[in-house]
Structure formats: structure tokens, C-alpha cells
């Protein structure tokens, strides 16, 4: 039979005993711990763990460093001057483009006027100098009779 099926009297059953294992000190001794007393005595706090045990101890508040606002690496005046310079350059670039556009538009209009003058002047020259007769319209004149200051054709 197996040992767990062997009937024993309750007094005969051996209870398992756990003995702690001793911790050997390290070869290098750490620096001694110096207890630091807080400025005031903190309140005792008890915490109930999920398994039902209660742990009691002092609640230690860690000191928070004061919030210090670091000065910016560049002064605000320098930032404003730089932004103003960028804005000025953008405006100068825009004005340069605007003046270039106006100059190009003026040149284009001037060329159109010169082209119109050349074409129109050529047309007028052809009209004036092109035909051999000076009248422009050919009229056949035949013998006409004037009687009593009236024209009879």
C-alpha cells in the first residue's frame, strides 16, 4: 500500500518543519546604513492585503523638488527679431516678384503696341502707294452735253 493510504493515528502523523537557510555575509561589506529621522513623525498606516494579512508601517512621503522654470535658451527678444527678419525677407521677395511681373507686363504691352503700329502702318502704306492711279476709282468719261446749265448724259 501507498504511504498516504496507511491509516495513522492523528498523533503519529509527522508535521513538516521548514527551517530557514542562513544567509552568509558577502565578501565585501556594504556601506553602513545611517538612519535618517524625518522632520516630523509620520502617521502609522495599515494596509489589508488580498489574502487577509494586515501590514502596518509608516507612510513615507518622498520630498518633491521645487518646480523651477528654466530660462529659455534664447531670449524672447532674439526670437522676435529673427521672426521679424524672416517676415521682412518674405515681403521683399514678394515685392521683387511684383515689380518683375509689372516690368514684364509693361514690356509685353509695349511690344503689342509696336506690332499694331507696324501692321497698321503697312496697311496704310499699301493703300497709299500700292495703286497706279491717284483716284482709286476708275470713271469712264464720255461726251456730255450741257444745255441751259443742265447736265444731259
Question: Could you give a short description of this structure?
Answer:
The protein is of the alpha+beta class and about 150 residues long. The protein contains 1 helix and 4 strands.
- Taking the alpha carbons of the first and last residues, their distance comes to 166 Å
Largest sheet: 2 strands, antiparallel
Physical arrangement of strands within the biggest beta sheet: 1-2
Helix-strand category? alpha+beta
Order of helices and strands: EEHEE
Shape: rod-shaped
Helix content: 25-40%
- Radius of gyration, in Å, reads 59 Å
* Mean pLDDT over the residues: 77
* Poorly predicted segments: none
Helical region count?
Answer: 1
Report strand %: 5-15%
Give the total of beta strands. 4
Supply database-style keywords.
single chain, 153 residues, alpha+beta, 1 helix, rod-shaped
How would you portray this structure in words?
The chain is an alpha+beta fold and 153 residues long. Helix content is 35%, strand content 10%. The strands form two sheets. A two-stranded antiparallel ribbon has the order 1-2. Strands 3-4 form a two-stranded antiparallel ribbon. A hairpin with a 5-residue loop joins strand 1 and strand 2.
